[in-house]
Amino acid sequence: MHRSHLRARTTAGRSRRAKRLAAAMVAGALLVGGCSDVSTTGGSPAGPSADLSEVLDGGRGAFVGEAVTTDLAAAGFVQEERVASGKAVSYAAVGPMSRDGRWTFVEDGSADYRTRVVVRRPADPARFSGTVVIEWLNVSGGLDGSPDWTSLAGEILRRGHAWVGVSAQRIGVEGGPVLVVAPGAEGIAGKGLVNLDPDRYGSLSHPGDGFSFDVFTQVARAVRASGVATGGARVERVIAAGESQSAIALTTYYDGVQPLTRAFDGFFVHSRASVPLPLVGPGEYADLAGGFAAMPVLFRDDLEAPVLDLQAEGDVTSVLESVVVRQPDGPRFRLWEVAGTAHADRFILGPLADLADCGAPVNAAPLHLVAKAALRALDRWVVDGTGPPSAPLLETAGDPEEIVRDADGIAKGGIRLPPVDVPVDVLTGEPGSNPALFCILLGRTDPLSPARIAELHPSRADYLRRYEDATDGAIDAGFVLDDDRDAMLGYAQPSRVGN
């Protein structure tokens, strides 16, 4: 049964955790409408739309902080980069931002903005599915990253969705302070697009993170009304997506802004923390450390747009502390917690994983396969109201709560994947021995000893049979797609099991 964990924290204790979290998140993430009033589908109120008419070109080409590249042409996709411009508003809260998420926001100030969006869409508009996934690009590493594109690309490409990445926050555009630089980002983190490539991006400007929420709204309106992200094909659904700091931003958006705009049909929230992104003044960056002194907050339960909240094991009781904002599944909410997974992992980091000296190999669990199933389920939820399956929570105990583990150190409960239930490694969200901030969110992969593997798996044939059965069980439960069966089977390691 789902439980709501909303323990009170001391101010000093939360402040210490806040500082650790803000630093860790900086280290951990590697990653044609006119400006006029438009009315979106589904009864959304009219409001200003971003102008997406100007194509960005020149310079050194489109920049996105991605460690893993995708062959778009081979998949029949094209990429465009455009300016998004207009006048955005900031928001102020009326009354407290209470933990039930039932907030009231009002418009506060206004400012001009000129940011960018990256569009990836089917080259043939006839292949477009009707769904656009709009990702709030992640700036925790000091530059615009697209971790949800990396996790979801396989599903987006095969289904014919379109994807739009939005440079929503100031640091991605203008640059700003960075506490820790991830491997591979030396010399570029914290510079912002305008300084990384002034020939291409020099005309961009961002008025501050307080305006980011309305920028995101205005891009969604323009995408929905203009067909700019679809080659002119009709947009039927717009899904907001964000991972890590961007998921925290979407928490604020859902509870405070979505009631005003109803700009999105669904929300894919990936690895949120217990608190929302704070509202800030003109020219300011969102203050993660200060924000973590705030009260933990749930997703409000009175909106039409559904939320699928995907949490890695490493998100639940570590610095993100999402355990304190667990909430029951409901008509418009699902919480999926995945055993053996980390906030950032080998799939997201790609070749950068081998540069991470964390005292143990980076977590290698296939969380991305669950993410793909989650997007499929959310899209179906929006289309016909069929909700995703409910998932068991990870087992936790103690005060403060910690993950309950078996004798090998493998988490109990949660969504179970074959490499977790038929193990040759201990996959965990806990970091390795290196206490460096970059390592806090990467989890680890601890190989089991040959003797222990022999105890667990009497033969290679037995291992492969059990692994295949576990794969089919995850597919039948709805947490892995049949389309990804071969990919999940590819994570098996029969060579490590005796004959």
Walk me through what this model shows.
With 499 residues, this protein is α/β, with parallel strands linked by helices. The protein has a single domain (11-406), classed as Rossmann fold. It is 28% helix and 17% strand. The protein has helices at residues 11-28, 147-159, 170-174, 193-196, 198-201, 212-226, 245-261, 288-291, 313-316, 346-349, 367-384, 418-421, 450-456, 460-477, 485-489; strands spanning 37-38, 47-48, 77-93, 105-122, 131-136, 162-166, 237-243, 266-270, 307-312, 333-338, 396-397, 402-403, 425-428, 444-447. The strands form four sheets. An eight-stranded mixed beta sheet has the order 3-4-6-5-7-8-9-10, with helices on both faces. α2 crosses α11. The longest helix is centred in the N-terminal third of the chain and has 18 residues, at 11-28.
Protein topology:
Elements: H1 11-28, E1 37-38, E2 47-48, E3 77-93, E4 105-122, E5 131-136, H2 147-159, E6 162-166, H3 170-174, H4 193-196, H5 198-201, H6 212-226, E7 237-243, H7 245-261, E8 266-270, H8 288-291, E9 307-312, H9 313-316, E10 333-338, H10 346-349, H11 367-384, E11 396-397, E12 402-403, H12 418-421, E13 425-428, E14 444-447, H13 450-456, H14 460-477, H15 485-489
Parallel strand pairs: 5-6, 5-7, 7-8, 8-9, 9-10
Antiparallel strand pairs: 1-2, 3-4, 4-6, 11-12, 13-14
Helix pairs in contact: 2-11
